[in-house]
TrEMBL record:
Name of the protein: peptidylprolyl isomerase
EC number: 5.2.1.8
Ranges for the TPR repeats: 299-332, 333-366
Alphabetical UniProt keywords: Isomerase, Repeat, Rotamase, TPR repeat
Source organism of the structure: Aphidius gifuensis (Parasitoid wasp)
Domain PPIase FKBP-type: 30-118, 148-234
Listed InterPro entries: FKBP4/5/8-like, PPIase_dom_sf, PPIase_FKBP_dom, TPR-like_helical_dom_sf, TPR_rpt
Keyword Repeat: yes
Catalytic activity: [protein]-peptidylproline (omega=180) = [protein]-peptidylproline (omega=0)
Length: 459
């Protein structure tokens, strides 16, 4: 017997179960569902079938990837269930139909078998590192939380089916680290609706990584689970919705937060809050009466972000923020000094020394700049010595190679002092005499008067 399962109870989706499924679970929004189906018109004409292709059809449930009737009908089915879905045209292809096989205003029948489903993949690289399965649906009429939203959540963390933490926590999205909320849980909340409860399966790289968590007795490289319930939230503050003066006030709040996080040793959060300063007031049109205040706050944002990046050993980012600060004030002592430090770490002492010298022009008593100039000069000398040694070794290698080539060429040439041209045989001595002791020791010398005849005496 067919049952009306359309939300409006208007007969738009009628479902008749042909074969009962397994268990009690049904797929939730976001799950990747695997099904077989056969579609027919009311007169029995078949227009499509996955079985004819011998290949299951996959789609993400509740995301509008299929006709509305399917998102409704499949969400009600269990694993292994086979059902007939009768779909009114407004829940299928409507007035346009799907030519040439499906005419306009057609009611369709689908025999659907649910093979199974996977959790929704919400990991950044879509590699299955963070999988989400909805346990209790949230309020679809509400939006999801965004950055700066104040969220009130209940967390249950599990490892090997054992609970390692369970608590209620309230925080602003983007600042979860300060409340012990791991980043993967925090980011997943941007996909929740108010009242939703979902299971998250999190691979180690998005959990506690190679360090594990000693407090929770979780070893290195451990995969974990969280059951997260979003009880309620307040919408985040969007820069576009604020007047210029309100943007500056909000930027000041971010500035104070970033300073406090930095002092507390929470460098990542300090960087996040500094970026918010820039996000809120970097662009836009500013009237003269508040532009000076805006520039001062923005300058502080760039300077602090440069400092934090130096601490985080991200020297290129530090230099870039100093450049931005110097666009506002080309003689800012801190910006020049911090850019000099970044240049030095980027192996550009020649550029760094220019910044430190300019610092001394602004403030001749800046002892830190004097020390850095000495470091730069010493590094430049070391680099020159290394280059000199490098070139000397290079030239020595070239000379040695040339010498080896010359020796090889000489070895390949014939020796004119060997053989019959240079070695004296007995037949060449006067009278065919035997060689003297001197001639034996010096085979290339012939003693013409060695026979004592005085034959060449007067030559």
């Amino acid at each position: 017997m067919a049952v009306d399962i359309s939300p409006a109870k208007d007969g738009g989706v009628m479902k008749e179960i042909l074969k009962e499924g397994e268990g009690d679970e049904t797929p939730k929004a976001g799950c990747k569902v695997h099904v077989h189906y056969t579609g027919t018109l009311l007169d029995g004409t078949k227009f499509d079938s996955s079985r004819d292709r011998n290949k299951a059809f996959c789609f993400n449930l509740g995301k509008g990837e299929v006709i509305k009737a399917w998102d409704i009908g499949v969400a009600s089915m269990k694993k292994g269930e086979i059902a007939m879905l009768t779909c009114a045209s407004e829940y299928a292809y409507g007035k346009r139909g799907s030519p040439p096989k499906i005419p306009a205003d057609a009611t369709l029948k689908f025999e659907v078998e649910v093979i199974g489903w996977n959790f929704e993949d919400i990991s950044p690289q879509q590699d299955g590192s963070i999988m989400k399965y909805e346990l209790v649906a949230g309020d679809d009429d509400t939006t999801s939380p965004s950055d700066t939203s104040l969220v009130n959540v209940h967390l249950i963390g599990k490892y090997n089916d054992k609970i390692f933490e369970e608590r209620d926590v309230q925080f602003n999205l983007g600042e979860g680290e300060a409340h012990g909320v791991i980043e993967s849980v925090e980011k997943s909340l941007k996909k929740f609706h108010q009242g939703e409860k979902s299971l998250l399966k999190i691979k180690s790289k998005y959990a506690f990584g190679k360090n594990g968590n000693a407090e929770f007795n979780i070893p290195a490289d451990a995969d974990i689970e969280y059951i997260v319930e979003l009880k309620n939230f307040e919408k985040g503050i969007a820069a576009w919705s604020l007047e210029p003066a309100e943007k500056i006030e909000q930027a000041k709040i971010f500035k104070d937060k970033s300073t406090n996080y930095f002092k507390a040793g929470k460098l990542r959060l300090a960087i996040k809050m500094c970026k918010k300063i820039i996000e809120f007031i970097e662009s836009g049109d500013w009237e003269d009466d508040i532009k000076t205040e805006r520039d001062n706050v923005l300058l502080s944002g760039y300077l602090n972000l440069a400092l934090y990046y130096l601490k985080a050993t991200k020297y290129l980012e530090a230099k870039q923020n100093c450049d931005k600060a110097l666009e506002i004030n080309s003689n800012n002592e801190k910006a020049l000094f911090r850019r000099g430090l970044a240049q030095l770490e980027l192996a550009s002492p020649e550029e760094a020394i220019k910044d430190f010298n300019k610092v001394l022009q602004i403030e001749p008593k800046n002892g830190a700049a004097v020390k850095q100039i000495a470091i730069c000069n010493n590094l430049i000398k070391q680099n020159l010595a290394k280059e000199k040694k490098l070139y000397a070794n290079m030239f020595e290698k070239f000379a040695q190679r040339d010498k080896q080539r010359e020796e090889e060429i000489l070895r390949q040439q014939p020796d004119v002092m060997k053989g019959t041209l240079g070695e004296w045989g007995q037949e060449e001595r006067p009278g065919g005499r035997d060689a003297t002791a001197f001639e034996k020791e010096n085979p290339n010398i012939l003693m013409l008067n060695a026979n004592g005849t005085g034959e060449f005496k007067n030559m």
